[in-house]
């Protein structure tokens, strides 16, 4: 995956396996996450022209807590959080759930924020202005998931993020070495939402990127 990212023209790639709650994806528990972090450190010592960032896509539980404890997250480069269950909560409860997750000690990116799957699952009912403004206050970011069946954020919420001063990160959500090509769909979606390069977190090089994500991790 690192070599495929390099071939796609990327200078860094974050490995974001699911956390333990998502058993269908063989999600990582703290022990397996630590082992993966050690493997990434060794790999970065061998690679040239690409840096692998240590991360995880941690489940946002129904009460807004995260699926892994702070002790498991604190040494990552960034933490991605996402809703994978209870998509039909009432608007107030779903909003409070996400707001609590954003307020977590270690939280960098809210992934596929609306939870939608095109033609299969509608977006969650959430007070998006409150969520976007909470992300701004927390200093974290919103994902634009470039998978063709998601394209989440939509264009309206991309524009909202821009107007509220929240950076969006365009992510391939790559599950194979071929999936980095999906980034072009995310770029098209971002343009529909009037985003420019300056509005997108990962248009920046690693030197500029690291302080931005580091602040979300208390560094």
Describe this structure as you would to a colleague.
This protein has 219 residues and is an alpha/beta fold. It has one domain: Alpha-Beta Barrel (TIM Barrel). The chain is 36% helix and 11% strand. It has eight helices and seven strands, in the order αβαββαβαβαβαβαα. The chain has helices at residues 2-7, 30-44, 70-73, 91-102, 128-138, 155-164, 183-192, 206-215, and strands at 12-15, 51-54, 57-59, 80-82, 109-110, 141-145, 168-171. The chain has a five-stranded parallel β-sheet with strand order 3-4-5-6-7. Strands 1-2 form a two-stranded parallel ribbon. β3 (57-59), α3 (70-73) and β4 (80-82) form a beta-alpha-beta unit. α4 runs parallel beside α5 (128-138). It is globular and about 50 Å long. The model has no long low-confidence stretch (mean pLDDT 96).
Give a short overview.
The chain is an alpha/beta fold and 219 residues long. The protein has helices at 2-7, 30-44, 70-73, 91-102, 128-138, 155-164, 183-192, 206-215; strands at 12-15, 51-54, 57-59, 80-82, 109-110, 141-145, 168-171.
Descriptors for this entry?
219 residues, alpha/beta, two-stranded parallel sheet, globular
What's the arrangement of strands in the largest beta sheet? Answer: 3-4-5-6-7
Largest β sheet strand count, sense and barrel closure: 5 strands, parallel
Structure classification: alpha/beta
Number of beta-strand segments: 7
Strand content: 5-15%
Specify the overall morphology: globular
Low-confidence stretches: none
Count of individual helical segments: 8
